[in-house]
Amino acid sequence: MIDYKLTFETYTKNLLGGRILGLKCNKCSNYIHPPRMICPKCYSTDLNIIEFNGTGEINTFTVVRVAPTWMEDIAPLIIAHIKLDEGGFILGHLSDIEADAASLDLIGKKVKMIGGREVKKDIISGVNGAIPIFQLL
Ligand SMILES: [Zn+2]
């Protein structure tokens, strides 16, 4: 039996506090985000919880116009796929750009996490989750 190093509850609580937690492999030094039970590079389970610095680069994005109930109040909005500086990726709400102003110029721009928004009854886990909020640097 493999234990989860980083539980969903701990991860979510930290996102709401503006911190991105992930894992670092003690065998190959790979930074892992989203968190997993094993290192995707070397398959080791010898992982430590670390705090990512919260900065990264927009890899791609989408504009959400028909939003799920927990973000209807802020739709339309931009959800970005962000390559974290340490490695790995995260999905987050890009909050300082109007959805109608989104263009391909956003790709490659540097961003920083500024906080988290609670997601009531996450559809995957059935419990409350969080989505990180980013702004351009
Ligand atoms: Zn590894």
Q: What does the secondary structure layout of this molecule look like, with pairings?
A:
Elements: H1 8-16, E1 20-25, E2 31-32, E3 47-52, E4 55-64, E5 77-84, E6 89-94, E7 110-119, E8 129-136
Parallel strand pairs: 6-8
Antiparallel strand pairs: 1-2, 1-3, 4-5, 4-7, 5-6, 7-8
Zinc ion (ZN) binds next to loops.
Pfam family, one: zf-ChsH2
Protein name: Zn-ribbon domain-containing OB-fold protein
Domain ChsH2 C-terminal OB-fold: 51-113
How is the quaternary structure best described?
single chain
**Would you identify the regions where 5 or more consecutive residues have pLDDT less than 50?**
none
Round the Cα radius of gyration to an integer and report it.
15 Å
What do the pLDDT scores average to? 93
Instruction: Quickly count the domains.
Output: 1
Main beta sheet: 5 strands, mixed, barrel
Shape: globular
* Category by helix and strand content: mainly beta
Domain ChsH2 C-terminal OB-fold: 51-113
Organism: Candidatus Methanolliviera hydrocarbonicum
Protein name: Zn-ribbon domain-containing OB-fold protein
InterPro entries: ChsH2_C (IPR002878), ChsH2_Znr (IPR022002), NA-bd_OB-fold (IPR012340), Thioester_dehydratase-like (IPR052513)
